[in-house]
Fold this protein.
Amino acid sequence: MILRQQIDAQMRALVGGHGCLEAAAEAVNARWGTNVCKGTLSRRVSSELPWTILDVIGLEDALGRYPVTRMMARRMGETGAGDVVSAAQAVAKETGEAVAALMGATVTAAPAEMARAVVEIDEAIEALRQARAALEAGQHDGPIFRSGGKK
């Protein structure tokens, strides 16, 4: 489980890696074209305001260090593989949504629709990864791996 204190500590270290709040704000703004000011970052450093994903990505990318992203990736490993039937249901759902979003993006060519399609495709890819993990972990009830049978 990730605690807010852990995120805050990692983010304070990233801000410190930039030398000062002003430089950290410039890094976020350069990455995203936003108007984050050092006062806002100061409030985030003091835990008065929460960190945004844009802050995390902007500060990590600028330093080439990814402590918060790594923490989040480890969190995903804690969920376990799941069972094959549930994984198959998730694959069907997510790939269907990805196809629909992809078609919508193709028809409209709108940036928002294209971004939605990318998100849906990523969710489908993750569902497929989890299905593979469940299958490889042998978490199924059926005769999928009977010896001598067809594969």
Residues 11 and 142 are 47 Å apart (CA to CA).
